[in-house]
Design brief:
This protein has 209 residues and is an all-beta fold. It is built from no helices and 22 strands. Strands 1, 4, 7, 8, 11, 16, 19 and 22 form an eight-stranded mixed β-sheet that branches.
């Protein structure tokens, strides 16, 4: 599923936007590329409570079939997609993914990413309405990666999620832009991060500025 702003003849890119996209109760499985791709999404009314993009109550299972293909792809360090406003991923299962479950990168603009769920159970039988588990042993990296470079400002909020059996970190935050950035990782359950194949010493939560 590709969500992007098309080029429009004679119209400056800054004047073309896609916003307030809501994906609910959706199933995506066995894709040949990313499960969901979002690029140049923006919110013309950033003061309201409606996010630029929200994905809720959905399942993204086995997205991608090769390296550099992820569950929800919002850009990477070499390919910033510069989405702005607020993006919310909530109460969704992302499993058996190739690379990252959720990856986002901005070189300009301000983006706040919320990844939220509700934890249940007790260890070792934990669960959540927002669950990320099992990426590829060869290509797999972290569950969530957010990158900010250039003039961007990026903010990441992760709460109430369960991450299990990923090769890299559960959460990797790389705020390297000149704008102010913020990260909050609260009340989550992480298990079996740092797989033996790629990142055996990965921290559950890593911040690299």
């Amino acid at each position: 599923l590709v969500l992007s702003v098309p080029s429009v003849a004679g119209v400056p890119a800054a004047d073309v936007s896609a916003s307030n996209i809501s994906l609910n109760w959706m199933g995506v499985s066995n894709t040949g590329r990313h499960g969901i791709l979002g690029e140049l999404l923006s919110d013309p009314n950033g003061a309201d409570s409606i996010p630029t993009l929200e994905v809720r109550n959905s399942q993204i299972i086995s997205p991608g079939d090769a390296d550099a293909e992820s569950g929800i792809y919002l850009g990477n360090s070499a390919d910033p997609h510069n989405n702005t406003g607020t993006i919310t991923i909530a109460d969704t299962l992302i499993s058996d993914f190739e690379d990252f479950a959720i990856v986002s990168s901005n070189s300009s603009g301000t983006l706040t990413l919320h990844v939220t769920g509700t934890l249940s159970g007790t260890s070792p039988n934990l669960d959540s309405t927002m669950k990320i588990e099992d990426n590829d042993d060869v290509h797999g990296e972290s569950a969530i990666l957010m990158i900010g470079t250039g003039t961007s400002s990026v903010n990441l909020n992760v709460s109430g999620i369960y991450v299990n059996n990923v090769e890299g970190s559960a959460v990797l935050f790389q705020p390297q832009g000149t704008g102010a950035s913020d990260v909050n990782v609260v009340n989550n359950a992480f298990n079996n991060a740092g797989g033996p194949d790629n990142f055996p010493n990965a921290a559950y939560v890593a911040i690299a500025s």
